[in-house]
Amino acid sequence: MKLTRLTLSEFTVFSDATFDFAPGVNVLIGENGAGKSHILKLVYALTEAARRLAAGQGLEGGVEPKLDNLVRGMLMGVFQPDSLDSFPALRPGQAAISLEWEDARLEVTLGPGDALTANVTGAISEIGRPLFIPPREVLSIFPGFVEAWLHRESAFDRTYFDLCVALGLKPLRSGGPTELLEPIERALGGKVVMREGRFYLRYPGGDMEMPMAAEGDRKLAMIAYLLMNGSLSENAYLLWDEPEANLNPERARLTSDIVAALAHAGAQVFMATHDYALTSELSLKVDTGALRPGEAAFFALRRDERGGTLERGERLAALQHNAILDAIASLHEREQQALFAPGETPR
Fold first, then answer.
1. HSE-up of 89 (CA within 13 Å, CB side)?
2. 59 φ, ψ (degrees, to nearest 5)
3. pTM (global) more than 0.85
4. Which segments of the chain are extended strands (E)?
5. For the chain, domain boundaries
6. How many angstroms separate the CA atoms of 91 and 153, rounded?
7. β-strand 268-272 against 25-30: which pairing, if any?
């Protein structure tokens, strides 16, 4: 069941905002502090709370969960604020959130103070599993991470813990979707394996310990293993924060191919990025028909005197405010000024 809309009132940097999501790929761009990661984390936290409620699964293995407790626990674990009072844009104040799927809705009110109320309606049993992938990879820190996070204070937020739990599942007997795995394994030059709680890249000449692999390769290896063990499936929601981090710019096309293939397989993808090549590759897929009309949406987030604002388009060129292109244009202008004397025009 697809996510269709997120409506915010006085939540962090957003005074009033409505995100109408595409069923396939959703790309968030904007300068630092515009709220991109907040959106990804909020969608993840609320979706996971609703999924756990439907499954009768509390946090850390608890049973008979209450929605208010699940939402509170997920928000605190994912964002790591001092208290819920940090969420309303105006303090002391109240924030209102509505997250909608095709046949379900979750409404949350935060504040004043530490107050929280949550209500869900509709077919929440149809909500799929969300997966949040942070900017850094976790395969190199996977050994012992889950137990350490459960029993000790940690600077890592809950998204790292949940991701490691998902990575800990054994591969499917089928080995995962070959059509999605083959391009990744071809780029890696090998296969991802887990042995005795540690990850390796298996090459024809032997296994390489994952911490010795390039960080960009480790990031792709995470996607491969999540496909292999079924965590990243046709009903999943993938929330990917800065997929370009530590990836060679030449991998932008591969990343866009992976994202489009996931959307075609039935997953719904949300990503926040600052990368020109990646956003352009995805927009090109819309222009060429590789992503069907209405299958993708681009959101430009920015901050002004009213707080966080946004605009939406079905391709990159439809956005009037593009922080990535603005930065490139500024650089080009300064290069021209440095290379040519005043009044001289480039040939």
1. 20
2. -75, 140
3. yes
4. 3-11, 14-20, 25-30, 95-101, 104-110, 116-122, 130-133, 191-195, 198-203, 206-209, 237-241, 268-272, 296-304, 307-313
5. 1-129+235-342, 136-232
6. 28
7. parallel
> Does 92 sit behind a cis peptide bond, omega within 30 degrees of 0 on the bond before it?
yes
Q: Which residues partner with 88 through β-bridges?
A: 11
Confidence bin at 63 (pLDDT 50/70/90):
low
Which of helix, strand or coil describes residue 239? strand
- Alpha carbon distances (Å) from 279 to 97, 160, 236, 282: 28, 25, 22, 5
Main-chain phi, psi angles of 2, to 5 degrees:
-80, 145
Which one has a higher pLDDT value, 59 or 272?
272
Q: Which residue has the tokens 């990804």?
A: 40
Q: What values do phi and psi take at 167, rounded to 5?
A: -70, -20
Nearest to 270 by CA among 13, 74, 16, 20: 20
For 276-306, letters b (16+ CB in 10 Å) and e give: bbbbbbbbebbeeebbeeebbbbbbbbbeee
pLDDT at 225 over 90: yes
What tokens were used for 273?
Answer: 């990025």
Domain 1-129+235-342 class in CATH: alpha beta
Q: 42 near 97, Cβ under 8 Å?
A: yes
Cα 261 to Cα 280: distance, rounded to the nearest angstrom: 17
Task: Return all residues near 234 (Cβ < 8 A) that are at least 6 apart.
Answer: 265, 266, 267
Cα angle 228, 232, 235; round to 5 = 135
Tokens linked to 145 = 């991470």
Report the distance separating Cα 137 and Cα 227, nearest Å.
16
| 8 Å CB contact between 105 and 98 | yes
Count of C-beta atoms within a 10 Å radius of residue 152:
7
- Helix 323-339 and helix 276-288: axis angle, to 10°? 120
CB hemisphere CA count around 31 (13 angstroms): 11
The pLDDT value recorded for residue 112 is 87
